[in-house]
Amino acid sequence: MLLTRTLLVLFVFAAGAQAVSAAEAWRIVASTGVVKTGAPGVMPVAVNTKQALPVDSWVETGATGRIVLSRGVESIAVGPNSRVMLPALAVNGNTQVLQTVGTALYQIGKQKAPHFQVDTPYLAAVVKGTTFTVSVTEGVASVDVSEGLVEVATPDGAKLDFRVLTAAPNN
To answer: Can you tell me whether residue 1 is helix, strand or coil?
Structure first.
């Protein structure tokens, strides 16, 4: 009897822990066209709707590809010819997305302190919660804010608060 109760408690605890872990994973909500995903030690594969992405995943869209990712109140709509990486570890307490090329629309739930950042080769955008688009092309990155305020920093450490910012590397 005691063993049965103990196992039941452990099962409920484990199920709850898995639910929390699954809630923290990025999930694929929708996709069209050519979209691939992968992670360290995981072969790149075509995506499936409602698939939970593994830790340290990346998502890459082809010329016809689009994908929407969701995690709690956060969502990312990735456009064609784009690549985003979703590191598992936070940076300065923030969820981090690495966007190396292409365009992505971010809708981030509001919190009191900054908690989400998008890093590109040319700028970093840090937010408390807002809707904004990041575009990266060869040599240039831009941030377009639809709602809220985004703090943007360039690689040389300059910080700016703007509704629209374009940054290019110093040549």
So the answer is: coil
Give residue 9's region: left, alpha or beta (phi > 0; psi -120 to 50).
alpha
pTM, entire model: 0.78
Phi first, then psi: give them for residue 24, nearest 5 degrees: -85, -10
- Mode of pairing for the β-strands spanning 140-147 and 116-119: unpaired
Two tokens, residue 15: 């199920």
Q: What is the pLDDT of residues 10-65, one digit of tens each?
A: 333 333 333 334 348 999 999 999 999 999 988 888 888 888 999 899 999 999 99
Residue 147 to residue 29: CA distance in whole angstroms: 22
- Got the DSSP string for 73-93? TEEEEE-SS-EEEE-SS-BTT
Q: Are strands 95-108 and 116-119 parallel, antiparallel or unpaired?
A: parallel
